[in-house]
Amino acid sequence: MLDILTGAISLGLIWSIMTIGVYITYRILDIADLTVEGSIVLGAAIAARAINEGVNPYIAMILALFGGMAAGLITGLLNTVLRIPPLLSGILTMIALYSINLRILGRANLSLLRLRTVYTVFEDMGINRTYSVIILGLICVSIIICALYWFFGTEIGCAIRATGRNPQMARAQGINTNTAKILGLIISNGLVGIGGALYAQSQTFADINSGTGSIVIGLASVIIGEVLFGKKNFMSRLISLVLGAVLYRIIIAIVFELGMPANDLKLFTAITVAFALALPVFKDYLYPVKNSIKEG
Predict the structure, then answer these.
(1) Where are the domains of the chain?
(2) Which of 150, 157, 216, 254 is least crowded, fewest Cβ atoms below 10 Å from its Cβ?
(3) How far is CA 189 from CA 70, 186, 199, in A?
(4) Per-10-residue mean pLDDT for the chain, 296 residues long?
(5) Can you tell me the distance from the alpha carbon of 30 to that of 91, in angstroms, rounded to the nearest whole number?
(6) How far is CA 42 from the centre of its chain?
């Protein structure tokens, strides 16, 4: 049971980086960005190909970051310059990235077995792969949370938040909302690219289909984190995203252990997201008097 929990925690920490990226577009920019289904594979593909070519794994991570940022830039330009709706812009970029990812990988699956990864330095110290993933995952998540907390407190970060909250008012205050959207999409998909690179190295391979359903997983983690761990302030929201991603992976691991077929994973995820989204409605039914007092 301990191995199951540690494995779920390690995966949860990696996917929490992608979850934070999804949160930036879904909650801050108020955009359902499907680019992430392609940019997570893009990050994995770039890192895997670079490592196979002899590039230092940490430099490969930076390349994956830039690759994800480029994907977000394309989606942002399609939306702001060509006036294509944000949902369709993400779909178009996602479709294009499938072919691009295939070209980068050279095949449908690229192995990283017996190659040095970002986790190797911890394994050289005698730490097994699962705990190496947890340690590096905690380091990356901590750095990302602190960096985002600082950034979204700056003038540019506040402009991005204002654009998502009320674009008309933001424009009235002199904010270039198109630039703010592009920046938000770049940051979001850059984080997703990093998550993809870490995931590929933890699994020792990059697969062209590894991003399928990632947007649903990200949304499930966002909703679970917000509902169960609160959203009092921006820092607590960021931490709740990590906890939500970890808890989601623990739930999945336990359900698999209880005998759920792997083919039913997507169905279970969809039901979980729907249930989490409907929790406020259930609370209204269970505590109508308390909620009416709060509203009054």
Answers:
(1) 2-263
(2) 150
(3) 8, 5, 15
(4) 86 95 94 93 97 96 97 96 94 96 94 94 92 95 96 95 93 94 97 96 93 86 84 88 93 85 81 76 67 49
(5) 16
(6) 13
Secondary structure (DSSP) of 188-209: HHHHHHHHHHHHHHHHTEEETT
As a whole number of angstroms, the distance between CA 69 and CA 87 comes to 18
- The reported pLDDT for the residue numbered 58 is 96
| pLDDT for the residue numbered 262 | 78
Distance CA(121)–CA(131), nearest Å, equals 12
Assess contact for 247 and 8: CB atoms under 8 A: no
| Cα 106–chain centre separation | 25
Nearest to 276 by CA among 210, 236, 225: 225
What does the chain come to in residues?
296
* Structure confidence at residue 71 (pLDDT): 97
Q: How far, in whole angstroms, is CA 206 from its chain's centroid?
A: 17
DSSP code string of the chain: -HHHHHHHHHHHHHHHHHHHHHHIIIIIS----TTHHHHHHHHHHHHHHHHHTT--HHHHHHHHHHHHHHHHHHHHHHHHTS---HHHHHHHHHHHHHHHHHHHHSSSEEE-TTS--TTHHHHTTT--HHHHHHHHHHHHHHHHHHHHHHHTTSHHHHHHHHHHH-HHHHHHTT--HHHHHHHHHHHHHHHHHHHHHHHHHHHTEEETTTTTTHHHHHHHHHHHHHHHH--SSHHHHHHHHHHHHHHHHHHHHHHHHTT--GGGHHHHHHHHHHHHHHHHHHHHHH-HHHHHHHH-
- What class, spelled out in words, does domain 2-263 have in CATH? mainly alpha
Residue 150 CA to residue 162 CA, distance in Å, equals 16
